[in-house]
Amino acid sequence: MVVLALIFSSFDNPETFSFKVVLLKGSSGKSSQIIEKTLKEISESEGENKILDLKIKDFDEGTLKEEVEKLKESKINAVVVIPPDFDARFDVWIENVMRSSQVTPPKIKVYYLKERLSSKTAAEIIKSIVKGVNNSLAKQANIPLRNFSLKEEFLGNKRTIKYKDYLYPAIIIFAFLSISLFGITQEVTELRSKQILKRLHLAPLTPFELFISFNASRVILMLIEFTIVSSLAILVLKVSINPFHPALLAYSALSAATFISLAFMLASLVENVQQATVVANIVLQVFQFLGGLYFDVFHLPPFLKWIVYANPVTYLVSGVRQSLGILKTPYPYYLSYVVPLIWIAASVLIASKYFRWVKER
Amino acid sequence: MGEGAMKSFTQISFSTVKTLYRDKLLIFFTLLFPLIIGVIFGAVFGTQGDNYKAKVGIVDKDETLETVLSKKKEIELVKLGSEKELKEAVANGKMPLALTLKGNDLLAYFNKVKVLADPYIRNLPEEVREKLATPEGFEDFGIKVTSIEVQSGRVKATTNSFLIPGLIAVSLFMSGVFSAIELFSKYKEKLILKRIAVTSLNPYTFITASLTGRMLVSILSALILYLAMEMMFKAKFLINWPLLVTGVVLGTMLMLAFGTFISLISPSSSAATNIATALMTLMFFFAGVYFPLEFLPPYLQTLGKLMPLYHLAVTMRMAMGVEKIVWNYLYTEFAVIIIVFAVLTAIASRLIFRQT
């Protein structure tokens, strides 16, 4: 959880990003200094986090080639070039722009790597800074800018959430799934292979008592896991969700029941420990990544979407998120508990029909 | 090596290949597992490649916003009947953003979770506001910014062409690490090495032949995976074959060395497997294979670069033309791999046979 929160929580704090930009100036007149000065001010702004880490060099073809090579090696995020004729063009443009729209505006170039999100974002930031400069120029030229205000609102969640709040219930569900698959499917298959299950079956305990005691041990593991994850979430990552929220506890219980029954069903169907390991791993990977635990999965192509909609994890995690006010479910809410209940019923039926105490020869 | 030793070496290498391909667990970890992950991540993140368009909703009567937004090729405009419908669609996650104009107020409705994965959308309302604020005839007023796309590698990279070399690196990692654990931990526990030690076969011939067989399995698995992923995602590569073959061979050696190291420090084979699985999970996230590391805090980016899987993934990307080849980096990396592999394998072999 810590790893994922560290990776994705940076999107919650864009002010922590810093982009390495190199400015190559081909001219040093008053006009090009407007761009240089604006970029410098932003890079020298007070505070810990500077969005721009700016280096300024004189432009020539050799230096441009060097810096573009550094860009290709991802050592920097963008290269801004103020060409040598910038000042001359700017002067002609500013003299004539109000009289004629045919005047060619002065240009600067921004080199970036499209496949790198950080480079693309750096290029967008530079464009945004230049837009700011253009607005100032417009005001100085007495161009009547229209007054539009922007109001933003986040929907789908009842309160302010960060990625770690989105992730917290998902990690609990993942932990329960993992304990069930490796603690039950794999373990039960191993006990059957070693004929320990056969000996337990011959003991004075009823099968029901055996199942209950085995499941109780797994539930205790789940409780321990719940406590550890919640402590980490509250104390270290400072999530805003109450771990004793009734919805979180209810969905945790439903998840435990769903995955325990699923794990027994798989244990009834596999033949040996190797098969159990393979099946457990496949189910774990497919269910966690196609269950919407870490990112949105409802936009996938049809050949994967059916897995998303058949997956009990999808309903458990979406259901608990809606109940906690994090995000609305993209389907009728009642499915969040109906589908897992269907999985429980089907798993119990299949397990009771196919479960074996003894390894067949 | 004498004729007899050469014959033993060849026979053991090929029997290792045959044995390993009967191992369902190995086939799963080296082929199926990276393939499953590749299909999932390729579908999830690959849809955000060159043809990706973010959905933005507006009310269908809003011609002003339609005029501004229709010029943006990264946007797919969705028109709904009313503001209420827009808000519902955003709240239900059907789109990350909806915009509506009320007089001189531009209202932007975001879906927080959808926007997390799409930083461009986050800035779009401000861009639209500025366009609206600009009077007619002055839309092009101001200094122009010409954006020039630079291509890092020999081919134009997409999300899938970044992912596939990383998955090949994962496959090499799995087969290398788990193979080394089997050889140095499991064989020792099953007393196979003890039985080999009492035969006339030189134990070091056995180790070298087994490692060679495992390397062949690694290379074959990586090739099958590459062909499968290329067929599925039709990503374009310009492969530098000598570099790719060298990268695959040395990458396997690196992972064998890593698995050997884990075997040396673990008390048993199951402990070694558990340690390898835990490290594998950590590496998947920090090695930049599935998620970009660019937005991680610097100390975590440094941690990622300490992981062998990170460097193997970078080497694969360079060899397949997705990233620029940096020869100094490669030569240093290859030298380190050869030294580490030779030292660790020699230590492991001596220790194993001394203990049997």
Fraction of helical residues of chain B: 55-70%
Major beta sheet summary of chain A: 4 strands, mixed
- Termini Cα gap of chain B: 24 Å
- With strands numbered from the N-terminus, the spatial order across the biggest sheet of chain B is 2-1-3-4
With strands numbered from the N-terminus, the spatial order across the biggest sheet of chain A is 2-1-3-4
Number of helices of chain A: 13
Q: Stretches of chain A where pLDDT falls below 50 for ≥5 residues?
A: none
Profile the largest sheet of chain B.
Answer: 4 strands, mixed
Mean pLDDT of chain A: 86
Count the DSSP helices of chain B.
14
H/E series of chain A: HEHEHEHEHEHHHHHHHH
Structural class of chain A: alpha/beta
**Approximate shape of chain A:** elongated
Write down how many β-strands of chain A occur, each being a DSSP E stretch of 2 or more residues.
5
Explain the overall architecture.
The complex is a heterodimer of chains A (361) and B (356). With 361 residues, chain A is an alpha/beta fold. Helix content of chain A is 60%, strand content 9%. Chain A is built from 13 helices and 5 strands. In chain A, strands 2-1-3-4 form a 4-stranded mixed β-sheet, sandwiched between helices. Chain A is elongated and about 100 Å long. Chain B is an alpha/beta fold and 356 residues long. In chain B, 67% of the residues lie in helices and 9% in strands. Chain B has 14 helices and 5 strands. Chain B has helices spanning 3-20, 24-46, 63-70, 83-91, 112-116, 119-133, 159-189, 192-197, 203-233, 241-265, 269-286, 298-305, 308-319, 327-355; strands at 54-59, 75-80, 97-102, 105-111, 144-150. In chain B, strands 2-1-3-4 form a 4-stranded mixed β-sheet, with helices on both faces. In chain B, strand 1, helix 3 (63-70) and strand 2 (75-80) form a beta-alpha-beta unit. In chain B, helix 1 crosses helix 9 and helix 2 packs parallel to helix 9 (203-233). Chain B is elongated and about 90 Å long. The model of chain B has no long low-confidence stretch (mean pLDDT 80). Classes of the chains: A alpha/beta (361), B alpha/beta (356). At the A-B interface, helix 1, helix 3, strand 4, helix 5 and strand 5 of A face helix 2, helix 4, strand 4, helix 5 and helix 6 of B.
